[in-house]
Amino acid sequence: MMARSLLRSNVMPDHLNASSLLDLARRAQARAPGPCACTKTPLEGWQSQPLSLDETQLREIGTLMPEDDPEPTFAEYLPGKINYWSAQAPIAPHYFPYNRCGVWECSSCGRLYLRYVEGGGYFVDRRIRALQWTLIEDVAP
Predict the structure, then answer these.
(1) How far does CA 96 lie from the centroid of its chain?
(2) CA dist 57 → 20, 85, 87, 92 (Å)
(3) Which of 18, 20, 113, 116 has the fewest CB atoms within 10 Å distance of its CB?
């Protein structure tokens, strides 16, 4: 059975601020509180997008990319000794990499994911992280 979508399918992805992201994440978690069978790879922290995740199940429902900023900051918000890859790293929409993310919904389980493309000199890495409302922090740069 397909999960009911949080947003109408004919709506283009909207810019989400921290407050709207938090609301969306809370509603999604209330609808899909149990474990996910959509991928075998845990996605609590940033991961390269696993091949086991069927990308056709994902639909972009929003973006954290600032509407009026063509080149958002690369500064990270990692308080204490938390690192980028940690499952406990805060989700801070004003900071990298969140300020370059799309918010994607799985049509199978209803969970939400953050996705962006990490680019380097000779590579491109599509990264994904499960959206957990308890980690969202609205801190200004």
Answers:
(1) 12
(2) 23, 24, 23, 26
(3) 20
- Distance CA(90)–CA(131), nearest Å, equals 10
Residue of 53, 54, 85, 66 lying closest to 14 (CA atoms) = 66
Domain that holds residue 74: 14-33+41-135
- pLDDT tens digits, residue range 54-90? 999 999 999 999 888 778 899 999 999 999 999 999 9
Q: Does residue 19 fall inside a structural domain?
A: yes
Number of structural domains (the chain) is 1
Q: What pLDDT, on the 0 to 100 scale, is given for residue 4?
A: 41
Cβ atoms 2, 108 nearer than 8 A = yes
Question: Is residue 2 one of the residues assigned to a domain?
Answer: no
What is the average per-residue pLDDT within 22-29? 94
Residue 2: its pLDDT value, please?
A: 38
49 falls within a domain: yes
